[in-house]
Amino acid sequence: xxxxxxxxxxxxxxxxxxxxxxxxxxxxxxxxxxxxxxxxxxxxxxxxxxxxxxxxxxxxxxxxxxxxxxxxxxxxxxxxxxxxxxxxxxxxxxxxxxxxxxxxxxxxxxxxxxxxxxxxxxxxxxxxxxxxxxxxxxxxxxxxxxxxxxxxxxxxxxxxxxxxxxxxxxxxxxxxxxxxxxxxxxxxxxxxxxxxxxxxxxxxxxxxxxxxxxxxxxxxx
Length: 221
Fold this sequence. Notes:
CATH superfamily: P-loop containing nucleotide triphosphate hydrolases
Strand order of the largest sheet: 2-7-1-8-9
CATH topology: Rossmann fold
Shape: globular
Distance between the termini: 18 Å
Number of strands: 9
Order of helices and strands: EHEEEHEEHEHEHHEHH
Strand content: 15-25%
Helix content: 25-40%
Structural class: alpha/beta
CATH class: Alpha Beta
Number of domains: 1
């Protein structure tokens, strides 16, 4: 009698392909989404940033094409007209948008994209790519702490901070439009929870595009 040797992980057929996802982080300004996003990108090699286009001026230390695609308002308007954005919005007098570019092709290849966008952009993106989107909203522990963080930045005037605080309360009211809500009372704890969400969503059955054939092979008798 000839006994078949079970296939090892190294010899299994390459059938367990996974469709990528669009991982959205949103929060009021100062609640920590940028810090969490940078930690995710620094510690998770499978995740890459979705670079938005914007009409706002480039800040010191920023790099065109890495932090944002900096474009004129005329060029941005042309891109809107040509339907080149998944989503776009006007925020504090400037336009921001997510170019479709190679994202759709990347998702098919199993690549994951991180989006640092507000609730309006999240809503638009979800309407166009619902099955690929995972929405995470980060809340501050309190409005007092949020104000302290904004003041501590030392980059905005008192009027701008007041405007950001007013906008923050409006943004927080949209918390129920997200799949997950995490309170950022401590950065490392918040990061750990967000990363756990990402890992779990990668394993969602509907994203395992090769799973049907794999299971069919296992149950063939």
